[in-house]
Structures are given as C-alpha cells and as structure tokens.
Amino acid sequence: MPVLGARMASFRICSNCFGVQVYPYMGFMTGQRYQCQECEEIFVMPIEFETTEQYLEFLKVQSPKKFAELKAVLEKKESDDEDETH
Question: Is residue 74 within 8 Å of residue 1, measured between CB atoms?
Fold first, then answer.
C-alpha cells in the first residue's frame, strides 16, 4: 500500500465500489473493459487518480466508511515503517 502523499504512476479505481483492484477484463480481448476484483463489476470507465491523496479526498466525500478504513491502514503502515527505522 502506498504511503500518504507518495508520488506514483496514476492508478484506476472501480466506479462501483471505489476499490483499487481493477484489471483489464479478459486482457482487453473483448474491448476496453475493466473488472474490479473486489466487487466483480465489469465496466468501461474507471476513475483515475494521480496520487493517493487525491484518492483519499475523493473517498472522504463519496465513501466515508471506506475512507476511514483505508486511512487507518495507511497510518498503521506509516507507524510500523517508522518503528522499523528506529
């Protein structure tokens, strides 16, 4: 899981459940479709973000429950990473 504020390549999320496990459906052999591995939705237009901060800001409004869960995971990971360096 990326750290808060980290710069990374853009990533896509599911437009149904806002999950990040989005993959090309059948390797794009059936057209440009994606499938979410979290809710199994098949869709054409995923939502794309450049940073994890943008994703978290989106979740604050669209899915506060998912935002709280993800933020807790990210903060715990950051805390664990700090403990390992000290």
Answer: yes
Look at the pTM and tell me if it is higher than 0.70. no
* Cα(70)–Cα(75) distance, integer angstroms: 9
- One-letter amino acid identity for 41? E
Contact 16, 48 (CB under 8 A): no
Which token pair is 37?
């591995």
User: What's the distance, CA 6 to chain centroid?
Assistant: 13
Specify the 3-state DSSP secondary structure of 85: helix
Q: What pLDDT, on the 0 to 100 scale, is given for residue 1?
A: 46
Other Cβ atoms less than 10 A from the Cβ of 55: the count is 20
What is the DSSP secondary structure assignment for residue 24, as one 8-state letter?
Answer: E
3-37 per-residue burial string, b: 16 or more CB within 10 A, e: under 16: eeeeeeeebbbbeeebebebeebeeeeeeeebbbe
